[in-house]
Specification:
elongated, Pdz3 Domain, four-stranded antiparallel sheet, single chain, two-stranded antiparallel sheet
């Protein structure tokens, strides 16, 4: 059921993106030959005027096919639209991912979104069926840690994380509170548990709609800042504290965050939608950003031949597929670790 739910929401993010392209194309005079939910073979299709609306067997995302988008000889096709119209159509998918993120934040704020608190608690397990999952329960509050005869209390999660990092391989004793009971559990660091320090807060109408704007801007700013920080560190040859994950890694996060309710899950999906928007708009061949770059060349009078563009996009697509394969293999290796 979790897998079905994950595929549904991931498809929703992709469909919102494609619907942006579809709506912009319709409004700006491009002929949409097909708008599909899922990928072929088709299980349903119906033509309304010039557009075929279809549902594919592979219900994972969707696509928009524009007339003449791959035919430079079609004088009535997409390639012969004005550069500004093409720019708006190509950019619309990213804008719709941002819009979707906003509404996901609205739902999250209404149901309960995460805000930092002083309480440190067990939020999950690296391995569900591990021995440590038998000792702890999600929601166990960490009151203190006993180590070498001394008791340590921590003001926040960062202090506790630093303590655990400094004592890797050592045996400690967690003092926890569970439903009013005080318990102790001995573990060896790392114990294989996830810790968190947040509480869920709800916002009423209309403040949830207003605050959602702030959350959208805040998270998008963090994504942009994080990306440029990564580039800067790469240029300086500094260590990059960044972990790239693929669909398997995203699924693991989805499975983890669903433990905290719909509010937290919608917040995660909103951040994911913003990440998709940002990545898609990077000037990389085969992505929307790469196509925008070629359209900008055209606007400034340096249009490249269509065939040259397609070669660049084809190699970009191959690169992205290889990157996805490498990242997915890394995610699988993480799952297979003892």
């Amino acid at each position: 059921m979790t897998i079905i739910l994950f595929l549904f929401f991931l498809s929703l993010l992709i469909i919102a993106h494609e619907f942006g392209h579809f709506l912009a194309a319709k409004k700006l005079g491009a002929i949409v030959e097909e708008f599909s939910l899922g990928f072929p073979p088709r299980i349903f299709s119906r033509r309304i005027k010039e557009t075929v609306y279809s549902i594919g067997v592979i219900l994972f995302g969707g696509f928009v096919k524009l007339k003449g988008e791959d035919n430079p000889n079609d004088l009535a096709g997409f390639l012969y639209l004005s550069p500004k119209r093409k720019l708006l159509i190509v950019s619309a998918g990213v804008l719709f991912n941002i819009l979707l993120a906003y509404f996901l934040f609205v739902f999250s704020l209404s149901l309960g979104y995460p805000v930092e608190s002083q309480k440190i608690f067990v939020s999950g397990f690296v391995k569900r069926n591990s021995w440590v999952a038998q000792k702890f329960q999600i929601g166990d509050e960490i009151l203190a840690v006993r180590f070498k005869g001394q008791e340590y209390k921590f003001k926040n999660l960062q202090e506790l994380s630093q303590f655990l990092k400094a004592n890797q391989g050592q045996e400690i004793e967690y003092i926890i509170s569970r439903q009013g009971q005080i318990l102790t559990q001995k573990v060896k660091i790392p114990a294989g548990i996830y810790l968190a320090n947040f509480t869920l807060k709800k916002e009423k109408f209309p403040y949830n709609f207003l605050l959602a704007f702030q959350k959208t801007l805040e998270n998008f700013k963090k994504i942009i800042f994080g990306f440029f920080q990564m580039i800067k560190n790469l240029w300086r040859q500094e260590k990059i504290n960044l972990e790239i994950i693929g669909p398997i890694g995203i699924y693991n996060l989805f499975d983890y965050f669903k433990n905290f309710g719909w509010g937290y899950l919608f917040y995660f999906l909103g951040v994911l939608s913003l990440n998709l928007a940002f990545i898609n708009f990077l000037p990389i061949p085969a992505l929307d950003g790469g196509r925008v770059l070629f359209i900008l060349f055209e606007i400034f009078g340096k249009k490249l031949d269509y065939r040259q563009q397609e070669i660049v996009h084809r190699w970009g697509f191959i690169f992205l597929l290889l990157l996805l394969l490498v990242v997915s293999l890394k995610d699988i290796s993480q799952l297979l670790k003892p």
